[in-house]
Amino acid sequence: MSRIHKNERIGAIIHILTEHPKKMFTLNYFGELFGCAKSTLSEDLDAVRNIFQRFDLGVVETIAGAAGGVFYIPTVIQKEIQDFSQVLCEKINQKERIIPGGYIYTNDLLYDPEIAYQIGKMMAMPFHEETIDYVVTIETKGIPVAFMVARVLNKPMIVVRKSSRLTEGTAIHMNYITGSTKRIQTMSLAKRAIGKGSKILFIDDFMKAGGTAKGIEDLMKEFESEVIGTGVLMATAEPQKKLVNNYHTLLVLEKVDEETGQIDIRPVSL
Amino acid sequence: MSRIHKNERIGAIIHILTEHPKKMFTLNYFGELFGCAKSTLSEDLDAVRNIFQRFDLGVVETIAGAAGGVFYIPTVIQKEIQDFSQVLCEKINQKERIIPGGYIYTNDLLYDPEIAYQIGKMMAMPFHEETIDYVVTIETKGIPVAFMVARVLNKPMIVVRKSSRLTEGTAIHMNYITGSTKRIQTMSLAKRAIGKGSKILFIDDFMKAGGTAKGIEDLMKEFESEVIGTGVLMATAEPQKKLVNNYHTLLVLEKVDEETGQIDIRPVSL
Fold this sequence. Notes:
Helix content of chain A: 25-40%
Strand content of chain A: 25-35%
CATH class of the largest domain in chain A: Alpha Beta
Radius of gyration of chain A: 21 Å
Oligomer: homodimer
Shape of chain A: globular
Distance between the termini of chain A: 54 Å
């Protein structure tokens, strides 16, 4: 193999870090890949960090010491959050999206990988400094967005089922009351899915009164685990008081009017 | 802004391409980002292509002309597929995974973003040259893997439901018979989800007799659309003849023995 140039090392490092968000790579790993000294790599990593900073591409963090290494945190700047939230609101705000019952059809947005990844980056922002063991969601519509949050944080996802399936073994079932329609629903999760004492981030696409989020908090207690954060893509403005105390949302749904076909939705930050 | 160095341009280009698989970026886009001439960019892109090639990081393709641009295809080399398939088999081959009924618990693998992305890259391999409009899957377990295939191919995902939900509007329902257990099941999909004449890639985590894959083929006909490819993570060796003619699988499940706790699974390529 001919000599590897600085350009090439920097390019390969950036590709590998970007494709594995929040995964730590040791200097040894890159040293062996390139056959170069640690001092050379240190200079390369300085250059890498500067590139991410200069173009607002996220953060590259280096941990010193024997257990150390380097990893990429897919952060987004405030302006990008505002701009993209605005674009999302415009996409959602189309009267054809209104479904009988006052629901809004958003599958085409949530199931688009580019959009979902961007949403995942934005929804993960408040939680980068938290200790999280699992990203938990409930089937079905919120799974892609939750999975992108999980990818950005590099944590395993857990999907709570609305009915128990044979293929997941022994499960804990729990009945709960939806916050807005006061219906009894069931959620269930395989016993082996979550270890005791886990820290949980709950992610969903939508929150009205917060009955589901409250249900997840209760279910996690059955696993002797704790919800330490809740994030949704959109939350309704009413009821203002939700059944959970703390949650983050990107968008606020003020109103859906089935008769006039009007959707009133806005970024939370504006 | 001080002058942008070649290192910096190459690094930023690699980050942006890597974070947006199969999304085309025009030379103008990068020209404006860096404030540099197209001739300079052409040299940068040559360097970028060489870096991907030298370290087996995937393919960077350039389309010439006014409608042209550059994009990243997350391909994997044959050796990587074999090695990772082998690792997957070893992870799956643990008797604790066997669930009463002869099922295998794999959620911890399928729901791990790093593993799922790697599986997505491998499962997408046969389909990079195909014209695909949607990646279709059926809820729930296969969604993360299907979504990673969708991300690698940069196509929207569609999730067929096992029961119709109010929140997706008018839907087409279809009963079908599972291939192995001969039970009647329902699948349903919102009418607006898929346009006429669409080309479909069906992705699932598991195939036994192929009843679900056959059901999806039939359902897609109701949408005047066509399944042009089917990929699963693992398929059982028996029955050898499936209800669909062509499918790709990464792993072959030879046998699950509940009594002895033995799982016999192997990469298809070996």
